Amino acid sequence: MSIAQVPDLSVLVVTYECADFVEACLASVVATTRDHRVELVVADNDSSDDSVGVVRRTHPSAIVVEMGSNTGFARAVNAAMAASRGRIVLLLNPDTEVQPGAIDALMDELDAHPEVGVVAPLLLNPDGTDQGTARSFPTPAAALWGRRSPLTRLFPRNRVSRRYLIGRDRRGDGSFAVDWVSGACLMARRETALALGGLDEGFFMHFEDADFCHRVKDSGRSVICVPAAQVVHAEGGCRRGWPASQVGHFHYGAYRYWTKHHAPQPWNPLRLVAAFALAARAGGVLASNRMSRRHASDSRHTGNPLGSPRIDVRHPDPLTRAMDS
């Protein structure tokens, strides 16, 4: 293969029951990258909806990797990367839409600074507000003071949250260094990703991005947020809330991340402390979810009397909202 044939960028999208989102996501990439050689690579985790059909009908040139089962996010990303050829890779969730100029800004930042290992955009909620994904590395305090936790909502200017959500108070379009950015939209050079072994497939879903960024920084490279690049993220759109399996993946991911980077010794007693704390938190989330579903069912059966509060199907209660920390 000649150098001229190598794409500038490989966009890696993992789908699982995402037929309602993936067409708009891929269309936004195509519409905003006309000056680059771009390949689309979609790894599908055995969706039962028409995710693969949508991709093949609307973007017939896309490379589709059918995983055969739900292998998780990290393994599917690595499979998509193995099938790709671009000198730069972009992890992109199917429930995102890239805004004009965003990919150009990210590629320019990466090309201009060889010491940078990862670049990421400003992720926005559909209403245009900052999603708060430019963060310090997660700590136990983040479980209480994360970006969507009830305590942060009640006390948005508290010191702990401000120290964790380091990108929230940034102003202007100047790029800035962070510890961790979301895997919903994360760009790196292929050589960097391959040198680090890609994503850690021990993570099924959640915290694999924090782990990857940690390894990037351990290698002496930096992680940069580029506010001039903006991507809208309907967070949780494909996930459709927090079923019990997702609660389990989230808390196991937190445990794996923390023990891998802070208590790597198998005999370290802090591993047991972390396991008990996270198991208790997971149990609380599951119990809270059950109560919310019961309340929602009662409200439907009674016509939502006396103005009973409506339930947000994606984040049905304060404890579950804290999951997106």
Number of helices: 12
Q: Which residues form runs of ≥5 with pLDDT under 50?
A: 304-325
Give helix and strand order, one letter per element, not per position.
EHEHEHEEHEHHHEEHHEHHH
Question: How does CATH name the architecture of the largest domain?
Answer: Alpha-Beta Complex
Radius of gyration, Cα only, in angstroms? 20 Å
Number of domains: 2
CATH level 3 topology of the largest domain: Spore Coat Polysaccharide Biosynthesis Protein SpsA, Chain A
CATH superfamily of the largest domain: Spore Coat Polysaccharide Biosynthesis Protein SpsA, Chain A
Beta-strand percent range: 15-25%
Mean pLDDT: 84
CATH top level label of the largest domain = Alpha Beta
Structural class by secondary-structure content: alpha/beta
Structural topology:
Blueprint: E1 9-15, H1 22-31, E2 38-44, H2 51-58, E3 63-66, H3 73-83, E4 88-92, E5 96-98, H4 102-112, E6 116-124, H5 142-145, H6 150-154, H7 159-164, E7 176-178, E8 185-189, H8 190-195, H9 208-218, E9 222-233, H10 244-262, H11 270-301, H12 318-321
